[in-house]
Amino acid sequence: MRLFTAAQMREADRLTIAAGTSGRELMERAGAAVAEAVRRMGGGPVAVMCGPGNNGGDGFVAARLLAGHGTAVTVHLLGERQRLTGDAALAAADWTGPVHGASGGVRDCALIVDALFGTGLTRALDGEAAAVVEAINRSGLPVLAVDMPSGVDSDTGEVCGVAVRAARTVTFAGAKAGHFLLPGRTLRGQLHVVDIGIPGSVVAGLDSRLAVNGPETWQHALPSLEEDSHKYRRGHALVLSGPMTRTGAARLAARAALRVGSGLVTLGSPRSAVLVNAAHLTAIMLRPCDGAAELREILEDPRFSVVALGPGYGVGEATREAIRVAGASGRGLVLDADALTSFEGDLAGLASALGGAPAVLTPHGGEFERLTRGADGTRGVSKVERARAAAAHSGAVLVLKGADTVIAASDGRAAINAHASPYLATAGSGDVLTGLVAGLMAQGMPPYEAACAGVWLHGDAGLRLGPGLIAEDLPEIMPAALRGLADKP
Ligand SMILES: NC(=O)C1=CN([C@@H]2O[C@H](COP(=O)(O)OP(=O)(O)OC[C@H]3O[C@@H](n4cnc5c(N)ncnc54)[C@H](O)[C@@H]3O)[C@@H](O)[C@H]2O)[C@@H](O)CC1
Ligand SMILES: [K+]
To answer: Are strands 306-309 and 397-400 parallel, antiparallel or unpaired?
Structure first.
């Protein structure tokens, strides 16, 4: 599913109106969709809270249609009626019932329609607007939000001061980034996208390179297996282990790479840790590797297709040098944790170490902040734009992890992942993700698609396992996750 910004929706509106459908007609259809959703939620009595713009106009239309079908409706307006303009003023004029103030509170209703603010929110809610939103939330009544829960920024998903908590949201023509970025995702309830007559060609023509992460965008690039395949044709991932007391992370990554289908996986281990690693490995091979010079020798073997580096590896110049060597080899790279922290405040240094190699960086929020300190465009904007900026600066694919993981490529493509489980917030979970992405890249999947697929499969594993999951379980559930994916139409 593609996602849109407020500016793109305004553009779609403009093009549709230019092609002959009036704004008032669009509002009529939007209001009709809201009225229909109210009926599906059990009907009235309904309080419709209208704001000063077109979101409020949608509310007036819904109120008129519901009342016309016999539903008990009260309308409340935030602001003065005579200050309404354009289509919203026309829609309000068609409402013949009384209009109450918004601050008096709602009484004797079973459902609230939140038509206060939609994509036109420009600043934080305060004063009367904030008080009305707080009263809606305090009422404990189910809320149907029109387009966005009021107070949620449709581009960033952020709460601007305060925001409505909705049970459902009806949105028009296409979903917005703010419906999928946190905390917007948790405030919008169930999301319904309805067609209000904006032509498909207009929507298709919008320059949105943002989507919800799902198989439809990367399934075509998943590794396929021939009947007569051979392990040497399924890729070979090299995962670098940390020293004696920090080896578990790399083994988790290696196991995940093997489970996701890499034909061979080798763990490169410092000599100090070879015995402890050997004691825990069976199908995964082991090679001593102490530092960058030895890594260079290992990578002379052309069969290694990908290097995963970072979990437990240690922070410092030795790590930076290992990344330079891996980057210069042109192999696929997956960098996490210590690999990223080794370039604290030096995204440009990391970009130059990568040397244009196909790479995926998988920071969580804290690692991202450290890595991008001082880099342009990585502050104060949406999570999507921050990830995009870092991808553009580094030339790598960014996986900005969290409950709303964002994957961004340097060419502007981006995806927000919603297929995940909160139980994935557990020690070692990120190491498994590193291994999944590395294992997919080892089999020839391009970095952006491998990152999206890895994040999705990781989330799928979390959803399958649920409460009680630990990181060790995640690679073991991959056969079921992969089979489920193969069964998808
Ligand atoms: N394709 C489209 O774009 C369509 C949009 N429609 C509706 O129109 C909405 C967008 O309408 P608008 O652009 O008029 O925007 P909104 O109705 O979301 O809000 C704009 C109004 O709120 C005021 N405002 C913004 N932030 C405020 C704040 N923090 N405190 C107090 N006042 C604030 C503005 O001054 C303006 O009066 C959509 O969300 C949707 O519900 C529909 O009518 C149909 C078609
Ligand atoms: K709203």
So the answer is: unpaired
